[in-house]
Amino acid sequence: MQRPSQTSRVSRTSKRRAKAKARGKKKDPLFVDGKRPRPMYVDYKDVELLKKLTNRQGKIIGRRKSGCSAVSQHAVTAAIKRARFMALIPYVGE
Question: pLDDT tens for residues 9-38?
């Protein structure tokens, strides 16, 4: 009779690990005519764009999920905070 630790070890090694699917690189949503504006600036009055970059609770969507580069994510964050202060978008969602 086998001990429980031996049987669990056998079952762990017999399982196959699922292959990770290769994902394509996300396009930065802030590109204008195919290139990034320099210096990086996001208009705080562009409420439609800023709403796309916040979730239903009003939180700013992270860089990995939105597909922004680090530079553009900093500009988005500053624009969202400025728009909240100017009462263009709410601090909290629904």
Answer: 555 555 677 777 776 666 777 766 667 677
Tokens describing residue 74? 């900093």
Q: Residue 73: in which H helix or E strand, if any?
A: helix 70-85
Q: Alpha-carbon distance 32 to 65, whole Å? A: 20
Count Cα neighbours of 62 within 13 Å in the Cβ-side half-sphere: 2
Average pLDDT, the chain: 81
Q: Which of 23, 41, 24 is nearest to 32 (CA)?
A: 41
- Tell me the C-alpha to C-alpha distance, in Å, between residue 24 and each of 21, 27, 67, 74: 10, 9, 11, 23
Residue type, 43: D
User: What is the reported pLDDT for 14?
Assistant: 59
Predicted structure pTM score: 0.67
Could you give the angle at the alpha carbon of 21 between the alpha carbons of 18 and 67, nearest 5°? 135
